[in-house]
Amino acid sequence: MIKNIDKKAKIEFGDFQTPIELAEKVCQQLIQLNVSPDVIVEPTCGVGSFIDAASLRFPLANKIIGIEINAQYLQEVRNKNQYSQDQRIELIHKDFFEVDWRSYIKQLSGEILVLGNFPWVTNAQQGIISSDNLPQKNNFQKHNGLDAITGKSNFDVSEWMLIQIVQCLQGHNACLAMLCKTSVSRKILNYIYSQNLNLTYCASYKIDAQKYFGATVDACLLFCQFDQSSKNYFCDVFNDLDQSEYKRIEYRNNILIRDVISFEKFSSLYDKNPKNKWRSGIKHDCSKIMEFRKIDGAFVNGLGESIDIEEIYLFPLIKGSDIAQNRVETTDRYVLVTQKFVGESTEYIKLAAPKTWGYLESHSMYLSNRKSKIYQKNPKFSIFGVGKYTFASWKIAICGLYKKLEFRLISNLDNKPTVFDDTVYFLSFSEEKVAIATFKLLTSDQVISFYSSQIFWDEKRPIKSSILNSLNLSALLEANK
Question: Does 3.40.50.150 match the CATH number of domain 7-252?
Fold first, then answer.
């Protein structure tokens, strides 16, 4: 079902052509929603499946506009019989990123429907292949500090494109109907909410991406209806285009809630300003040099080298997969922790552990080539996600990548504090008694239900620190004394 084109081009343009069967089902659903547009715009029309379906399903539309960067695709559309017979269809050879969408939408009259399927690709994937098919770089998600220059600044290109269209449809009587990743649909709702934009109604309909696109991803049809003044910040979530039953997700306390009933049941547990803070594990971006396996009493790095260094800066390491699989009572993994807090000078290692310093110096090329900007203007051999909490004797940890809420209680290993990789979130404790009491509360049914109400399990990292931090743990501990 996927168009057979050059692999690099497919990645660059996120080229998943929509089958006509799905395009027709989408248009039929829009009719069920009483959508009756005067003008239909498909901003990346490809081989024209939505153009074909819209021309048949919306006979009263005055104009159907298809815009596409690929001239070959436009020619395929022109070669079809319906194009020559339907004078309403207008095809434009243009790059989405070069269109002044605000001006373009403004000159359209009547009810507007923006319809289609934007590229399913991230800016990080584009960077890997050195693609120019990207919007001008800016921190449009408004992340602060470290988030703006690490993983959180990665985004789906379709997210950026959808935001441009949503902005341009403000002030118009218009509808948006786009196929996208389910996670992107929620990001769009979040953007509309955060910017206090107009929204009359929002719904998402799950689609079988494997069936239609051969893609293993959670995807949906995102439908948004806009008018001049409504601000209805919720989304009705349907499991299929043909189903009438839905679950509503909506905002409570400025966060999007997956299960409103459960959240309201345990709303007393919510804390806007939590005193307890979940931390993420150590970030070093150089596992071949910074991580080791202990094999027959020797430390072996990721290059397969047996290393002779002091153990003073080596700490037992448990990774996210170990947390998820409950492999927490022993480990043969170790990580080199070069700082006690972020920004600390590493020069002291030279005197305290000369072999370790020599090892770092001899492998400095690997560490200097770390791509993240967070290492720039910081002491050489720097790491992140380190502080006093790193060296506590007791910790409660959970992996953010796995689709289950399973906390682990972890103590020292080999008479040293256990540390984690950056897929793990944890709380730290100096007292065993407090750690055990907290663990008991975190694994209680009420806390699991409270957390679960906020988690969207289809996301790449479903368990987030913002969700974990939303629990009023201090009040809960006090109440259970």
Answer: yes
